[in-house]
Amino acid sequence: MKVAEEIVIAPNTGAAFAVAKGRRLQVYGTTIADFVAFDQHDLRERFDQARTKTYNSCIYATRGDMLMTKSNEPLLLITEDLFTEGTHDLQKGMCSAARVKRAIEEGRLREYYNRDISPEDLPDHGCWENLSRALAPYDIPPEDVPSPFNLFQTMRLELPSGKMFNTGIRPKPGTYIEFEAQRDTLVAISACPDLTVGGKEIRAVILDL
Fold first, then answer.
1. Does residue 204 contact residue 6 with C-beta atoms inside 8 Å?
2. Considering its fold, how many domains does the chain have in total?
3. Which range marks the domain in which residue 49 is found?
């Protein structure tokens, strides 16, 4: 395989780019990356958390699993996953300025971030804004950005209550997850501000087979 394109996404920013059918995409990071995808030729066909969990019969997705669209069409196949320290998340949504504001107003910062944190230390925007800005040139309005596949975000689930808790588990350097495009795909990724590690860049590499 040879490198066709490499995209570096700075901390708390986003990027959108095309991955042609049959090409592979490797996403490297030591921080959380919020990941969404669309059929490049029909942007109404977009990644869907629920369909993906139903198709794979699992709340986690890893090597061999398929990311599905809302109409149950295959979008991206996970061909490799080196994040062995934890799991990727298909439960939560995106961080955003509105979420931070509500957490402050309700006095729930510790619940949301699983530790004590001062409002002054919180970013003024998050992954929702990053993805919305990255997808704006494609005429995708913010309200049509789907709930993401949260790469490298390990959640602790309490059973049988179903409560979710953030963890500090993050990938070691060199870790990546790899996808193979099942159709021409528009991908958007946000390098999360990820307060646990202070926010770091994400690197995306598109490969020709």
1. yes
2. 1
3. 2-93+127-208
C-alpha R_g of the chain: 16
In a domain, 158, yes or no: yes
DSSP string, 46-111: EB-HHHHHHHHTSSS--TT-EEEBTTS-EEEEEEEE---SS--BSS-----HHHHHHHHHHT-HHH
Within a domain: residue 107?
no
- Give, in degrees to the nearest 5, the angle at Cα 135 between 130 and 67: 90
- Tokens 């804004």, located at residue: 129
Query: Could you read off the pLDDT of 14-64 as tens digits, one per residue?
Result: 999 999 999 999 999 999 999 999 999 999 999 999 999 999 999 999 999
User: Is 118 domain-assigned?
Assistant: no
